[in-house]
Amino acid sequence: MDALYTGLSSIIAPLLHSVLVRGVILGAAVLIITRLLHAVLYAVLRHTARRRRSSTMELFVERTRKPTNRLALSIGLWASIDLLGLTPPTTEVVRHALILIMISLITSLAVTCIRAVAHLLVRQFDVSARDNLQARKVYTQVRVFEQIATVTVIIIAIASGLMTFDGIQQIGASILASAGIAGLVLGVAAQKSLANVIAGIMIAITQPIRLDDAVIIEGEWGRIEEITLTYVVVRIWDKRRLVVPITYFVDQPFQNWTRTSSDILGTVTLHLDYRMPVDELRRCQSEILSESDLWDGQVDVIQVTETTPTTMVVRCLVSAVDSPSAWDLRVLVRERLIGFLQREYPDYLPRTRIEASITERPAPRPQGVPE
User: What is residue 307's three-state secondary structure?
Assistant: First the structure.
């Protein structure tokens, strides 16, 4: 028995003096301890959130669980690095690497918290609703400020990481100062890289555009699909995507059909003969609108807006709750009115009149008859 103990001791003792084996044992011990403590802490937090019926607390507990688990492990390894018995230079290198890892994990945790706050702010608003003006306002502001906060956190993390290296602390301090001092940001706003950030802040505050706005840009009709700090994505009606620099909406004119409300007027223009009774056309349009779910019940107008030498110009005005419905309603009214004219008043469609003047000629004189 003593021989077996002596043999095992002779095998285990060298292994315990091995740095690799000590590192594996220490890592496993730190992993088990941090996992256990983390699990207990989050079990308590989850139970508290459910007992208080706090959806906000539940959201933060769920979203921060994984980042904090990794952060706790890295802190545990950093705190126990001296137990490995490494040489001082090696210990400093490993400790420095763990500090960089902790900075990245803290940055990830901060970004997760920013996104959680943004989700909390917008989850009570429904952008898919028909009357979604307030929802689009909040979504636009939250998304832009979320991106600004995320970029700021990443810049601070990069600066903090640089400041851990000897000799380049001044670079990290410069980046940190340029990101944190509002006066410097405003002072160099003329630079193109920061002009986009300033434009994003201006759009978030003044809101010339919002998410899901119907706009006309460069002759293209579409909806605002995405707003970032550098560009805006417009979803064109035919499923194409128009990518526009965000500074365009500060410097260039454009049309916003849903700036104050989502409802919009649609127009249909007809060229008809002068003999066409306009009241019959009004009656037909009213019947078309009353049968359509696209009409919001607000505007039903027909007016003769212009005359030409051959026709009169009739403008039909209809209203809908949003621009896609207005487009479909315009198409429906145009098709149905043309069908009505073809059935009931085919002779009153535009036509070209030609008047021929016939001049009588004297009959030819028979031959041999004197004048």
Answer: strand
Report if residue 371 sits inside a domain.
no
Domain count, the chain: 3
User: With a threshold of 0.90, does the pTM exceed it?
Assistant: no
Query: Distance between CA 326 and CA 89 in Å, rounded?
Result: 72
For residues 93 and 121, state if they share a domain.
yes
User: Which structure tokens are listed for 298?
Assistant: 């607000």
Among candidate residues 94, 97, 123, the one with its CA nearest the CA of residue 19:
94
In this structure, is residue 363 part of a structural domain? no
One domain, residues 50 and 87: yes
According to DSSP H, which parts of the chain are helical?
Answer: 2-16, 19-52, 55-79, 88-122, 133-162, 169-180, 182-187, 192-206, 248-251, 278-290, 323-344
In angstroms, rounded to a whole number, what is the distance separating the alpha carbons of residues 171 and 97?
19
Domain that holds residue 245: 210-256
Over the chain (371 residues), the average pLDDT of each successive run of 10 is 50 50 70 81 82 80 84 81 73 83 89 87 72 73 83 86 71 56 50 69 79 83 83 86 86 81 79 89 91 87 88 90 82 92 85 62 59 56
